[in-house]
Amino acid sequence: MAMYFSMDHSAPGDLLYHVGESIDSLCFVISGSLEVIQDDEVVAILGKGDVFGDAFWKEPTIGQSCANVRALTYCDLHAIKRDKLIEVLNFYQAFANSFARNLVLTYNLRH
């Protein structure tokens, strides 16, 4: 699974997700801080160790973001695309069960 992860870097002010955008990745914050903004209000601050995106391994359809996600500081993120994660989970059923049971999203962006 590790070979499917990408390392993404964001600068302060970068928008990682916009309201209404399709959520096609699961993101793990390695360093830095991000804010989640809904209706012009900050609803969450994400930092090292947080996970955001969509629980798409539980949903048959691609979700759309209900919030903007903006970098507050320089950020490093590990991200895995929806299709690659689903491919791995379908192939390794025992891992899929553990993954679905144990991974908790810090912030679910799905509408």
Description:
By secondary structure, the chain is an alpha+beta fold. It has a single domain (2-108), classed as Jelly Rolls, CATH 2.60.120. It is built from 2 helices and 9 strands; from the N terminus they run ββββββββααβ. It has helices at 82-91, 93-102, and strands at residues 5-10, 15-17, 25-31, 34-38, 41-46, 51-53, 68-71, 75-81, 107-108. A 5-stranded mixed β-sheet has the order 1-8-3-6-9. Strands 2-7-4-5 form a 4-stranded antiparallel β-sheet, with no helix packed on it. A hairpin with a 2-residue loop joins strand 4 (34-38) and strand 5 (41-46). Helix 1 packs across helix 2. The longest helix is centred in the C-terminal third of the chain and has 10 residues, at 82-91. The protein is globular and about 40 Å long. The mean pLDDT is 92.
Low-confidence stretches: none
Radius of gyration: 14 Å
- Strand order in the sheet with the most strands: 1-8-3-6-9
Label the overall shape. globular
Q: What is the assigned CATH homologous superfamily?
A: Jelly Rolls
Average pLDDT for all residues? 92
Task: Say how many strands there are.
Answer: 9
One letter per element, helices H and strands E, the order comes to EEEEEEEEHHE
**Whole-number tally of structural domains:** 1
Discrete helix count: 2
In CATH, the architecture is Sandwich
The amount of helix comes to 10-25%
Please state the structural category: alpha+beta
Distance between the termini: 27 Å
Sheet with the most strands, sense and barrel status: 5 strands, mixed
Strand content: 35-45%
